[in-house]
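Subject: Protein entry, chain in single-letter code together with its C-alpha cells

Area: Proteins and the way their chains fold up in space.

Attached in line: The record itself begins immediately under this heading.
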Amino acid sequence: MKSQEWLYLKRHPAVWRILLGILVIPLFYAGLFLASVWNPYGELHRLPMAVVDRDRPTETVHWGRTVTQSLINGKSLQFHRMTARTAQRELKDGRLFLVLKIPSNASETLSRLATTPRQLRLTYDTNAGQSTVAAKMGATTMQKLQATLNQSAIQAELQASQATAVTAGKGLTTSAQQLGQLSQASVAGLPVSQVAAATQKIVTGLTQGGEQLRKTRRTDQLKQLAMPIKLVQHDVVGVANNGTGMAPYFMAISLFVGCITLNIIYDAGTRHGPHRNFAIAWLDKMGFLWGFVVLAASCMWLGVRYIIGLRPLEPGSTYLLSLLIVLAFFSLVTCFRLWLGLTGAWLMLLFMLFQIGASGGTYPIQLTNPFYRAVHPYLPMTVAMAGLRHTISLGGSITGIIWILVGMTAFFSLGTLAYFYWHRSDEVVL
C-alpha cells in the first residue's frame, strides 16, 4: 500500500521546498550557535585587557615595571599598558574587559617582605554591566594569574635580600679592614683612648652588619607568606544578578521571534476593506500591526519588570527603547515577508538564528570566529542589545543607537510601502 502523503508530495513538489527549509533549521541553530561558543576559554588571548602601573621603584626592586612588561609580552593574555583614566574609559565603553592596577607601594612592600611581611593588594576592575560572562571569565583568569604574580613577588624579594646581603658583607669587610688598620695604629703608638673609641665604633658596625645578615636569612617568613599578592575584584558597573546581565540578549531575541511569528501567522500583504489607494491601504494595515507589536513589547516589558523582577537603571528609557526596537525589527521582517512570501519569513528565521551566535550575547564577541567578529557590529540585534545594556546597567547616551533604529524603521517601512504600491491593482479582500 502506497503512502498517501508520499503521493501528495509527488503531486505537489513545492511542498518539498517547504519541508527542506524546515529540515535545515535545527542544523542552522545548532551549528551557528555552537560555532559562537565552541572554545571561548581557548581564545582568552583575544580579550583586550589593560595594566595600569603606578609603582614607584626602590633601589633594589622595580616590580611594577617587571610585571607590566611580562604581561604585555605574554602570549596567553592580551594586556596593554595604559593610564588609569584611559583604561577606565575604555572599560566602561566595552573596549576593554579587565583593568589590572599596580599600586604605588608595590616595590616598597615586596622589598621588605622578609623583614616586614605584609600582603600586597592588587585591584582588577571588570564591567559586569557590559558582560557578566566576561566579568566571570576575568575573575577566573586572575585566579590563575595570581600564582604567577606570587612567584614574581617572591623572586623580587629574594633579589632585594641578596642586594642587602651584599651590602652588609661589604660593610663587614670594610669594618674588618678598619680593625686591622687600628691594630697596626695602636702598635705604632697612638693614644689608648683614641684606639678604644675607634674599636667601639667598629664593633658597633660589625654588630649591625651581622644583624642585617641575620634578617636576610629569615627565609621561614617567606615560607609562611606563600601568597604575598592578593587580587581583589571590583566591578565598575555591577549588576544585581546574572538575569539582569543577560536581559538585553533575551529581550532582543524575544522581540525578533515575536515579529517573525506574527508575519508567519498573519498575512500582512492582503488588503481588507474598500480602500483602493495603496497609501491608505498601507497605513491601515501597518497601523494595526504597529499597534499590535507595540502591545506585544509592552506585555514583555511588564512581565520582565513586575513578574521576573528586572530593575533597570533607567526604566522609562528601557521601555521606550523596547518599543523602538520592536518597530525596527517588525519593519525589517515584514519587508522580507511581503516581497519574498514565506521564503522571506524563513530567511528571517535563519537570520535570527545567525544573530543569536554572532551578536555576542552569551560570550564576548572577541572569543568567536573571525567571520562573526567581522559582521557583529552591523547586526540589528547587536545594536538593540547595546542600547538595552545602557538603559539597564551602564547608563550614558543612546542617541546614536536611537538614530540607527529610526533609520531601520523608516527604510524598511518604505520597502513595505513600495510593495503596496507595486500591488496596488491587486484584488481587495472584503
